Amino acid sequence: MNGKSLFGIIRKKTVRIVALIAAVFFLSASGNVSATVTDTEALFMKMVDDLESMGNGFQDKGLSLQADWFYAQAGVAVSSFRLAVAHIYTIREQQETERKKKEAEEARRKAQEEEDEEDDWEDLIVDDGGWFKALENIEEFTKKIDTLNAQLAPLAAQMDSLEAVRQDHEYNLWHYLAAESPASPFPWLFEGMVAYAKNRRERASECFSYASVNYNLAQIGKTIDFGFLLSMTASDLAALYNRLVAKAAALQNLYVPRSNNYPRHFMNFDDVYLRLLAKESMEANPSDMAGVFAIFEAAVRANPFEAANFAGCTLAAIGTGDVGEAVYYLNQGLLIAPEDEALNTLLNMWKEAAK
């Protein structure tokens, strides 16, 4: 069985999983399809369980690299969901705090208005100097406000800086998850959901479009609807978060999450795109085989069922002089595609060189 036929079988088996993803995150354009929070969570967990089960099947066959591909997708799906729930919980808490603050301010304002109505406004204005004295007091008050604003300006700048750091940290978390499973659309999908919840609509639209390009979602042609999460109470979000934490912990017992420093890109799920990128890189800068190897390695992470990705890794590793990596990827490729022409050519070259 060659690499392509094996991957073809995997793609057929994942049709059902893709359908489940559609049920969880998309509604029909007419808006007639809906799901309760409980139903949505159940479908999501079913999808994760299916990914785990398929990983177990490959683990039983001794194909740990392929098993981890499924485990990583399951783990990243849950971790992305959990991160999104945490952000929305924080937003909900901030909204509740702001609501209570406004209610308190409104109550104080009404109380002050009632108190003012009982006072003699003429005495308040004319007292001790009349109108001109009142104006002098206003000018003095304005100067004090200006002084206070000047003193607060550095603090405001510091707060802006802290917010920028916080956003950068959040950005890096999504990048880490995307690197753990380049095949998964969920980091883009849930980052978009959080951006939408924060009224960063341009970023939300960008993330949603990136997720939809992924072939796991691109075939669905539905409209994203995250209303079920945005309408949840803080206590319900906290309970959901705890369930996702438990699920993530169970998945981490199956594999060791792996990441890399390859730049995040919305096309990193597509090994065909990555192989073309490696080819262009090699033609543009033949001496940078380390860079070419990084791209081919990303292609293996995206699709460890395609023999061409392992052949590319092997060839690039030879170019960098890393014998260990070359042997590793050659052997891994032959495990899934023992009759692949390119891999066997590399194997024969290796045998000849060893004579």
Q: How do the helices and strands line up, and which of them pair or pack?
A:
Blueprint: H1 3-13, H2 15-25, E1 26-27, H3 37-60, H4 64-118, H5 121-126, H6 130-180, H7 186-197, H8 201-213, H9 215-218, E2 223-224, H10 227-230, H11 234-252, H12 271-284, H13 289-302, H14 307-320, H15 323-336, H16 341-354
Antiparallel strand pairs: 1-2
Helix pairs in contact: 2-3, 3-4, 4-6, 4-7, 4-11, 6-7, 7-8, 12-13, 13-14, 14-15
Summarize the structure.
The protein is mainly alpha-helical. It has 16 helices and two strands. A two-stranded antiparallel ribbon has the order 1-2.
Distance between the termini: 29 Å
Strand tally, please?
2
State the helical fraction: over 70%
Globular, elongated, flat, extended or rod-shaped: what is the shape? elongated
Please provide the ordered H/E string of secondary-structure elements. HHEHHHHHHHEHHHHHHH
Let me know the largest β-sheet.
2 strands, antiparallel
Radius of gyration: 29 Å
Percentage of residues in DSSP E strands:
under 5%
- The chain-level mean pLDDT equals 77
Which strand order do you get reading across the main beta sheet?
1-2
Based on secondary structure, the structural category is: mainly alpha
> Multimeric state of these chains?
single chain
Separate helix tally: 16
Poorly predicted spans: 1-35, 159-166, 219-224
Structure characterization notes:
This protein is mainly α and 355 residues long. It has helices at residues 3-13, 15-25, 37-60, 64-118, 121-126, 130-180, 186-197, 201-213, 215-218, 227-230, 234-252, 271-284, 289-302, 307-320, 323-336, 341-354; strands spanning 26-27, 223-224. Among the domains are: 10-92 and 176-252, no CATH class; 271-354, Serine Threonine Protein Phosphatase 5, Tetratricopeptide repeat, CATH 1.25.40.10. The chain is 79% helix and 1% strand. It has a two-stranded antiparallel sheet. Helix 2 (15-25) packs antiparallel against helix 3 and helix 3 (37-60) runs antiparallel to helix 4 (64-118). The protein is elongated. The chain starts with a helix and ends with a helix. Mean pLDDT is 77; it is low at 1-35, 159-166 and 219-224.
